[in-house]
Amino acid sequence: MVNPIVVGIIGAGRIGRLHADNLRVMPSFKLKSIAEAMVGEELLEWAESRNLGSVFTNGEDLLNDPEIEAVFICTPTDTHAYWIEQAARAHKSIFCEKPISLSSEQTSRALQIAKEEGVLLQVGFNRRMDPSFRKLKQLVQSGQLGKPHIVKITSRDPQPPGEAYVLSSGGMFMDMTIHDFDMARYLMGEEVVEVYTRGANLVDPMFGRCGDVDTAVITLTFASGAICVIDNSRKAVYGYDQRVEVFGSHGSATADNCRPTTVEVSTASSVTRDQPQHFFLERYNQAFTDEIAAFAQAVRLQEPLICSGMDGQQAERIAEAAKESHLTGLPVKLSHHAGEGTPATSQVL
């Protein structure tokens, strides 16, 4: 039997606690410690209820523990790159939530240090492990749909985040749409060469005050000429709307919303079914578990990462181009260079 991987988590917010609860019930892992700068009574009670051995106020103390083999970075986005560098220098395997950073320079530096130290770095784009999206990927890879021509991605949140979150998130394209940028690359298996964005403020004027948008349509063009259309909204009154369609020369395939039940009620006056699941914690619950199971296999069995640092960087580059296109009103070209962590250039057309 392979020994469990001893893990520490830096960041005890919502996503850190979600990973903690998943890690605790998985035989591949042994969760030993968690670090959080703001340690209060509530956090200590939560940690005690889960039999966590240590709660640190400083992530460096966690990294200094020689028993800890892998670290989950679940801190605010603007600290991800710093903790990747510190964990890499401590020779820990790294699982980092998306995005790696809010600047291409920071991301490139973090990836370079991880490469120099020879540590694994997986980025938390959990949607790659969603069963429906994986099925779409398999259909594309197998050639059953023929040559892909169009990908359509709908991603709409049930309610907007608060202003404080928006100000620190990096904006819609880096915080929300980045999942869709990664999904587009994942499904197509090729790089985006052009990005064109139309954004608007239709949900809440707060987003405009923060220099952000709440509604957007983004068109991606791939190296093969295939096109992806993404539509985003910060507020879908009917629930968490997550749909993907791949249309190709031999047919199409669609992944629909997940609902509490599949029951459809038909009467003389209406045909109804359940609304989509409320939010990402319900919709992607299994995907969160499966992505860290894949991380365990990469660490212990040297299997390929399901989402590498380079994948994370490419999604960020598309997000930066989407914002640039929104600000200029023009399409933005993306160039690509071989090698992880290599900066690339963009050009407004």
Describe this structure in words.
The protein has 349 residues and is an alpha/beta fold. It has 13 helices and 16 strands. The strands form 3 sheets. The chain has an 8-stranded mixed sheet with strand order 12-11-7-10-9-8-15-16, with helices on one face. A 6-stranded parallel sheet has the order 3-2-1-4-5-6, with helices on both faces. It has a two-stranded antiparallel sheet with strand order 13-14. Strand 9 (215-222) and strand 10 (227-233) form a beta hairpin. Mean pLDDT is 93; it is low at 338-349.
Helix-strand layout with pairing:
Layout: E1 5-10, H1 14-24, E2 29-35, H2 41-49, E3 54-56, H3 59-63, E4 70-73, H4 80-89, E5 93-97, H5 104-117, E6 121-124, H6 131-142, E7 148-156, H7 163-169, H8 172-175, H9 177-188, E8 192-200, H10 205-209, E9 215-222, E10 227-233, E11 241-248, E12 251-255, E13 264-266, E14 271-273, H11 280-283, H12 285-301, H13 309-328, E15 332-334, E16 346-348
Parallel strand pairs: 1-2, 1-4, 2-3, 4-5, 5-6, 7-10
Antiparallel strand pairs: 7-11, 8-9, 8-15, 9-10, 11-12, 13-14, 15-16
InterPro entries: Gfo/Idh/MocA-like_OxRdtase_N (IPR000683), GFO_IDH_MocA-like_dom (IPR055170), Myo_inos_IolG (IPR030827), NAD(P)-bd_dom_sf (IPR036291)
Domain GFO/IDH/MocA-like oxidoreductase: 133-253
Keywords: Oxidoreductase
